[in-house]
Inverse folding.
């Protein structure tokens, strides 16, 4: 079932949680709402579920207006950050709850409930825990049970609020891959909220980046990572270096170096901010005749697949971060205090006038 | 060998920890002795005195004082007042705690303050308020007489006074508990299609049952033991509007010590049962919180 969100606004007192949000979630997709805390992503999810109602705007499920539809009739499954399992019920009863509370006419028989619950527990690979109580389970197990419980009512839409937020790093990683596989198996339209960009990039078909109640960008993970639509998206998705630069007729000037841009061909001498990812900076120990930024190596983080360098440019105050391969690091034989020359490879430029406007 | 070493290390660690963090022995012991002395002076000795005084003239006098018609009537009235006040406060307490813990609304802090009012107001004042409202010269006095209804110096007044002094207990017990539990589970139930009643019955009530029982026991103890407010509205009519605490007072003023202490011993006995139940419930709810350790993945 597809979800269409139109001009949603929501305020809590004087705080604007959502400011004119429009979003389409195509049927069968796994979409991530990504943003810092307070950006409105959880509020949007709760509005889709019907746990909050928007001040203005409308929600449509599969083309049908559902803004005022009761939560119980929306056919959504909701997974909470802190699991929200019924603590006094066994795992089995937790999963069966959605079936048992149905009116007599539509309630499945006891045998059918048994069959369905065990099927779901097998799906989340926790059938052996059916008689345990939630406090006896680990965090990862609880969240899988919560997912089974949400799926028991055969929802048309699955909504997950920071589903892995309360878990430790290792379990988190396992569980998000598992969620991706589960989604590929079930193909249920899913929206999940996260503040973890790595999680969104790895799991989602499509990422919705939000900031201060607005959507900054919508796109595939590669799209938003490679072509961020705003400085905010650049900073939020991965590490990035920011340079003050000037743009003139399709050329960006950062210090002594100038780079040819794909855009801004008619721009005349404007102030701009240039963004470069740490892995898009080439590091040399000699200048090779071409202009480059000069810097001193101030710190070396050599633990990990890439070597991270903190660099202090000679004519500027902001430090620059660069990532190079271990081979390259050995080749250059860098030490703390080494003098290096930097050449950005892939630069994206935002005119300051455009940034202040938005 | 290895066990002795590790035991020794453990012992040393324990000693080091206790020395590092606790007061010298003489301070600890004097604190314990002071509190024990205080307790025996003000609690154990009076309690023992109640039972010895009650039985001083023999067991038969004791029983006779309890089955005498006025005493029986006082016991009955006390039970009736508690039996009416308790369910009403149960409903009110759960409703108020639910509203305060799970919803945001204007005037919430005023409601919380109002719930605490009976703690702040002297019970005698509470009784006087009801006399002012329902008494002969009160706001509704004439209307009540016209309709042949009696509130003050009758059972309804006693029940009203009892409800007033006991109504914070259940709500006060439940509000922090429900606030700590949040509303995630209720929302989960809602999304799964449960109706309001189903959520209350299958999710909320089981989660608060120990707190609720604790509140009920405290309410009951207070309802049966209340003196001040009930004394003002009751009129002390023997065999009619006398509750147990009032009956004790009357007997005592008539120098009928054995009977006074006999009835008092019933109230003291009730207090002991309340304490035992309270400890049992605290133990049970602690047990239900400290569940078994998580199973490994």
């Amino acid at each position: 079932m597809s979800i269409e969100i139109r001009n949603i606004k929501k305020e809590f007192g004087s705080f604007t949680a959502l400011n004119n949000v429009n979003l389409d979630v195509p049927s069968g997709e796994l979409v991530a709402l990504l943003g810092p805390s307070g950006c409105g992503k959880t509020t949007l999810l709760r509005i889709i579920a019907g746990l909050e109602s928007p001040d203005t705007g409308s929600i449509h499920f599969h083309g049908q207006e559902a803004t005022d539809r009761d939560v119980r009739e929306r056919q959504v499954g909701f997974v909470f950050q802190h699991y929200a399992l019924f603590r006094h019920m066994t795992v089995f009863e937790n999963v069966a709850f959605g079936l048992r509370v149905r009116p007599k006419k539509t309630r499945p028989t006891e045998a059918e409930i048994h069959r369905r619950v065990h099927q779901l527990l097998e799906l989340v690979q926790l059938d052996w825990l059916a008689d345990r109580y939630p406090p006896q389970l680990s965090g990862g197990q609880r969240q899988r049970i919560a997912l089974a419980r949400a799926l028991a009512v055969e929802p048309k839409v699955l909504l997950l609020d920071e589903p892995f937020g309360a878990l430790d790093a290792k379990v988190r990683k396992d569980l998000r891959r598992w969620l991706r596989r589960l989604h590929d198996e079930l193909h249920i339209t899913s929206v999940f909220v996260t503040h973890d960009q790595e999680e969104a990039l790895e799991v989602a078909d499509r990422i919705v980046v939000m900031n201060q109640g607005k959507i900054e960008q919508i796109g595939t993970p590669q799209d938003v990572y490679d072509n961020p639509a705003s400085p905010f998206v650049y900073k939020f998705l991965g590490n990035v270096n920011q340079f003050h630069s000037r743009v003139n007729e399709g050329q960006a000037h950062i210090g002594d170096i100038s780079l040819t841009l794909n855009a801004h061909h008619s721009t005349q001498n404007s102030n701009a901010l240039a963004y470069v990812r740490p892995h898009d900076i080439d590091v040399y120990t000699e200048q090779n005749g071409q202009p480059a930024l000069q810097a001193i190596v101030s710190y070396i983080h050599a633990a990990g697949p890439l070597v991270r360098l903190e660099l202090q440019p000679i004519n500027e105050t902001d430090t620059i971060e660069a990532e190079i391969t271990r081979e390259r690091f050995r080749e250059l034989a860098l030490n703390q205090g080494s003098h290096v020359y930097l050449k950005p490879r892939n630069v994206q430029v935002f005119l300051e006038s455009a940034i202040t406007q938005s | 060998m290895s066990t002795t070493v590790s035991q020794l290390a453990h012992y040393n660690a324990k000693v080091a920890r206790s020395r590092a963090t606790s007061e010298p022995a003489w301070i600890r012991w004097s604190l314990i002795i002071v509190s024990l002395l205080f307790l025996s002076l003000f609690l154990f000795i009076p309690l023992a005195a109640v039972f010895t005084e009650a039985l001083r003239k023999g067991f038969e006098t004791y029983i006779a004082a309890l089955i005498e018609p006025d005493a029986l009537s006082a016991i009955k009235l006390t039970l009736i007042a508690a039996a009416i006040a308790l369910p009403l406060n149960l409903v009110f307490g759960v409703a108020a705690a639910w509203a305060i813990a799970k919803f945001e609304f204007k005037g919430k802090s005023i409601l919380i303050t109002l719930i605490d009012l009976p703690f702040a107001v002297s019970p005698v004042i509470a009784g006087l308020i009801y006399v002012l409202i329902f008494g002969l010269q009160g706001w509704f006095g004439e209307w009540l007489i016209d309709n042949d209804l009696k509130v003050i110096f009758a059972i309804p007044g006693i029940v009203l006074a009892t409800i007033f002094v006991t109504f914070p207990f259940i709500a006060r017990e439940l509000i922090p508990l429900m606030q700590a539990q949040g509303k995630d589970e209720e929302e989960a139930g809602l999304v799964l299609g449960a109706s309001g009643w189903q959520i209350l019955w299958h999710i909320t009530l089981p989660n608060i049952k120990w707190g609720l029982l604790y509140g009920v026991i405290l309410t009951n103890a207070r309802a049966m033991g209340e003196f001040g407010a009930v004394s003002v509205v009751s009129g002390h009519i023997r065999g009619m509007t006398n509750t147990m605490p009032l009956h004790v007072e009357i007997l005592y003023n008539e120098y009928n010590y054995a009977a006074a202490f006999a009835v008092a011993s019933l109230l003291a006995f009730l207090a002991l049962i309340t304490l035992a139940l309270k400890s049992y419930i605290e133990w049970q709810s602690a047990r239900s919180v400290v569940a078994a350790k998580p199973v490994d993945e």
